[in-house]
Amino acid sequence: MTCLHCFWNANCKKSVVLLCLNYINKFIFNFYLKCFSKMSYANQSQTLNIINLNITGQQYQGLLERVLFSTLIGMPCCVFLFINGTMLFTLRSKLVFRETSRYILLYNLLFADTAQLAFGQLLYIFAAGRIRLTYPVCGVLVMLTKLTNDISPLTLVVMSLERYVAVCFPLRHATIITIRNTAVAIIVVWAISLLNVFTRILLLLNFPFEDLESLQIKDVCSDIQMLLDPITDHYDKAYTYCLFVSATVAIISSYIGVMIAARSASADKASAHKARNTLLLHLVQLGLSLFSTMHTSIVQSLSTIMQRLAIVRIKSVFYV
User: What dihedral angle (degrees, nearest 10) is formed by the CA atoms of 161, 235, 299, 290?
Assistant: First the structure.
């Protein structure tokens, strides 16, 4: 009995010690768990605050950058619009300008470029202000921009042909390049541009707009947003290639013809030299117009390998 009693007391003491150690371990574990949870919550809160500060800083930097870009771009645009408006007024105020084919064509070119600059600046203001338009409103603005943009290369072709006739056929220049023929050429230029716009509108009408949740565009208004169908994209590229290849061939051919005529003994050297410089200027203008037209394809290619912020900056540089 004594041995059993001692064995029982030993087991009881051992059980009591194990039970106490278990409670102590649970207490310590719960204490550390609560402390760790509080520390983790504090670290999470601090991390969230840092992220919020970074986001706020990025938003502020984006706003500051947009204001800076809008100011630097808007001020020269207003200056150029004023200069173009003065030149347009001057070309219509003098009788000699209104009765000379060269200046009539220059007026048409300057008018198209001024309208394109105005519409482009309006789209830039909407983009800088992150104003989202509806598809019909954006479509009208983009189509007007495309119309005025297509008029420039076609007018440059007519102006180059006029210089070619003036140098290579000086005796027939007055009978070929008349006010009536110049007006017909300008009407043809506008008709081709309008036909291109109407074709793009017909292609856009095939898009199922009724399936959209809203007609409001989810991004800023641009010509890229109007490429809703792959067919429209293919047509736009095909028309652009044909237009600028034809214009380049016409201007270069006129330049070669003027160079050949300038080497003849009967040619007016001074007139041929001026015509050559004019054609070179038209070729540079055509290159700038081509770059302003092809920037959409360039932006689409870069958007696959670059971030959105970099693409926005690149588009601003292209716009300038």
Answer: 0
Taking the C-alpha atoms of residue 107 and residue 189, their distance in angstroms, rounded to an integer, is 14
* Beta pairing partners, 216: 134
Domain span holding position 127: 15-43+58-206+226-302
Q: What is the pLDDT of residues 75-101, one digit of tens each?
A: 888 899 999 999 999 999 988 888 889
Helices and strands counted in the chain (H then E): 9, 0
Length of the chain, in residues:
320
Residue 116's closest CA among 86, 83, 152, 87? 152
**Distance from C-alpha of 101 to C-alpha of 109, rounded to nearest angstrom:** 12
The CATH number linked to 249 is: 1.20.1070.10
Apex CA 194: angle with CA 85 and CA 95, to 5°? 35
d(CA 74, CA 81): 10
28 lies in a domain? yes
Question: Quick one: tokens of 145?
Answer: 């921009």
Distance CA 17, CA 11 (A): 10
Residue 81 in any domain: the answer is: yes
Determine the Cα–Cα distance for residues 188 and 192; give it in Å rounded to an integer: 6
Using only C-alpha atoms, the chain has a radius of gyration, in whole angstroms, of: 36
Q: Confirm whether 215 is domain-assigned.
A: no
Question: How many whole angstroms separate alpha carbon 56 and alpha carbon 2?
Answer: 80
Q: What is the pLDDT of residues 273-318, one digit of tens each?
A: 788 888 888 888 888 887 777 776 777 777 777 777 777 777 777 7
Q: Which of 153, 146, 156 is nearest to 243 (CA)?
A: 153
**Number of structural domains the chain divides into:** 1
b (16+ CB within 10 A) / e for 197-207: eeebeebbeee
Would 63 be classed as within a structural domain?
Answer: yes
